[in-house]
Structures are given as C-alpha cells and as structure tokens.
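It is worth pausing here to work through a concrete case rather than discussing structure prediction in the abstract. The textbook approach is simple: state the sequence, then state the predicted structure, then interpret. We follow exactly that order.
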Amino acid sequence: MRTGNAPRTMASLRNLAIGLARLTGWNSIPDAIDHYRSHPGHALQLLDLDR
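Step two, the predicted structure:
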C-alpha cells in the first residue's frame, strides 16, 4: 500500500467515504466510522449494494 498508485487510490476511497457520510447527515466522521464498522450492511445500503 505504500508504493505505486495504492496510496492515492486509498486516499480517494477515504475521501469518497467521508463525502458520503457528510451527504447522509453525519457531522462527526469518527461517529460515522464507528457506526458503519458496527453495521456494514448500512454502508452497503448507501451504495445500493445490499442485494
């Protein structure tokens, strides 16, 4: 994860996740992380991948 395009890709994915959390009303990113870590199905619902 430290060479090539991996760091930039991981940063982009993290920024996407933060943006989605903010769009869905989360004010506290650490709270959102804790919630979605405990309820991964909710994260899949955000992306419409829960089928």
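Step three, interpretation. The mean pLDDT is 91. The radius of gyration is 12 Å.
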